Write a sequence for this structure.
């Protein structure tokens, strides 16, 4: 612990020398409670809180950039922003094109949600957001995959009957189910996919990734990360 | 905006709606209409300028210039707008940064292209990574305007080229016989007369330009379509103003807004057409002459 503090302090000091460095954080802004645009037009949610704290600990000035999910990795590679913090699960496929920090959100369950508890999630039409671990899961599950560019549209597809169910992160779906007055229900058992959620960096950007890795470690150690998870996802959520 | 909006969750009925429609996010939505109008106001004249240049080049007596003009119109007109937009924005952005990189970081040793990554030195980023978000938005908007101008310029070039050829040869011959130089013939006879032939084509382009403004959204500029989608999507209790999926209403509003824009344009263009046709030796000019007799 003492070593850790020292390391963080050192990091803060060295970072102080180059305080002018601005890091641009790319996020989707449509995935509450992870990240969303609040009614003041600002990026808000769990990742906003964690991201700001990480930047503070790493001694960086951070700027939030909203980018469509579809093009979030290509735009990182072409340098429109320096890191992705958008509820992105760590997967081997993605690791081939970007380099991930350690996870700042533990491996979490994905759930099916439909209009009735007996919806056919194995052979029917299942909605998922394009380019997610959930869409990959549905594609090889035997069900017919129906993809949408935003998470919101996947839930809307279930409501209007285009799909029998949606597969998404459990934590994203909980508020939708809770506030649907019984219209939406969880279907079947949650599935465990993905290796937790991490920040994604350009593969050539090791220095920056290490800074954030150290900051995540320090947030894990002093419990602030768990506190943030509990604040945004409720007391029953998986923690570190 | 209003004092009683401080606690949105306690509001109901009309006051809820009033607060909802005046939230900061909605104000951004209203301002984004200005973004679209600014785009139209800047892109249309620039496209006309590109078109004029393209038409002149295509008519030129110097072969390389003529080829260039023809190539420009053929290439842009032959590629789907959306492909051109996606390709051109990325290529232009990287091209600018690459050139700046060559100037400001001559000693940079690392390769710029590393696999899929495009990395110029931090000083060569346009705009700089440290500049405020507003400059990134302005830059993105400028790239979008430039792309619109290039694409619509190619169509305008063809329209103007056709219009210049449509001016009766007898008019130009008469001018020549008065001893005007080719330059004078162009400026005094051809240019003023070609507009009546160009207007139908140009007004078409203007309408298409209005309708293509949602492409801004594809280019990452937060235009009215972006905000309509963002505001209309279902909102949970995580937001200050939770509501179900209202995209239908927001898109309906956009539909009406676009119809208003095109309707106003049509009226103005019809007025302009009447003015240009006045006294022309064309069927439209003849019809006007008869109507006033």
């Amino acid at each position: 612990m003492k070593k850790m503090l020292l390391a963080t302090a050192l990091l803060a000091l060295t970072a102080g020398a180059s305080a002018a460095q601005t890091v641009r954080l790319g996020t989707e802004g449509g995935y509450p409670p992870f990240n969303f645009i609040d009614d003041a037009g600002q990026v808000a949610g769990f990742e906003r809180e964690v991201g700001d704290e990480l930047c503070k600990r790493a001694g960086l000035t951070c700027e939030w950039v909203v980018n469509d999910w579809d093009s979030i990795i290509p735009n990182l590679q072409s340098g429109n922003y320096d890191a992705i913090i958008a509820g992105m699960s760590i997967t081997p496929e993605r690791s081939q094109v970007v380099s991930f920090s350690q996870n700042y959100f533990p491996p979490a369950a994905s759930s099916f949600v439909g209009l009735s508890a007996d919806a056919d999630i194995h052979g029917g039409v299942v909605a998922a957001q394009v380019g997610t671990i959930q869409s990959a899961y549905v594609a090889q599950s035997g069900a017919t995959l129906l993809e949408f560019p935003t998470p919101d549209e996947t839930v809307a597809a279930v409501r209007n009957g285009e799909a029998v169910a949606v597969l998404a992160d459990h934590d994203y779906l909980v508020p939708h189910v809770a506030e649907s007055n019984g219209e939406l229900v969880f279907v079947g058992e949650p599935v465990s996919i993905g290796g937790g959620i991490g920040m994604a960096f350009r593969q050539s950007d090791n220095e920056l990734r290490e800074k954030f890795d150290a900051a995540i470690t320090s947030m894990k150690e002093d419990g602030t990360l768990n506190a943030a998870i509990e604040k945004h996802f409720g007391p029953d959520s998986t923690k570190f | 905006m209003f004092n009683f909006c401080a606690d949105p969750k306690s509001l109901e009925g009309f006051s809820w709606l009033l607060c909802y429609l005046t939230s900061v996010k909605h104000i951004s939505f209203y301002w984004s209409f200005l973004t679209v109008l600014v785009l139209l106001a800047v892109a249309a004249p620039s496209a006309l300028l590109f078109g004029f240049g393209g038409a002149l080049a295509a008519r030129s007596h110097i072969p390389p210039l003529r080829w260039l003009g023809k190539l420009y119109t053929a290439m842009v007109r032959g590629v789907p707008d959306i492909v051109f937009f996606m390709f051109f924005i990325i290529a232009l952005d990287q091209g600018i940064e690459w050139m700046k990189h060559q100037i400001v970081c001559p000693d940079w040793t690392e390769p710029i292209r590393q696999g899929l990554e495009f990395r110029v030195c931090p000083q060569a980023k346009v705009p700089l990574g440290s500049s405020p978000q507003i400059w990134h938005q302005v830059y993105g908007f400028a790239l979008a305007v430039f792309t619109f101008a290039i694409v619509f310029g190619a169509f305008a070039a063809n329209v103007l080229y056709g219009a210049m050829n449509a001016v009766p040869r007898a008019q130009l011959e008469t001018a020549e016989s008065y001893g005007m130089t080719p330059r004078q013939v162009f400026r005094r006879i051809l240019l003023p007369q070609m507009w009546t032939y160009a207007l139908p084509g140009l007004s078409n382009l203007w309408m298409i330009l209005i309708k293509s403004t949602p492409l801004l959204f594809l280019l990452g500029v937060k235009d009215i379509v972006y905000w309509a989608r963002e505001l209309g999507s279902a909102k949970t209790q995580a937001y200050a103003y939770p509501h179900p999926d209202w995209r239908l209403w927001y898109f309906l509003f956009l539909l009406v807004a676009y119809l208003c824009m095109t309707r106003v344009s049509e009226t103005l263009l019809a007025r302009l057409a009447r003015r240009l046709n006045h006294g022309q030796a064309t069927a439209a000019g003849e019809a006007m002459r008869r109507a006033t007799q």
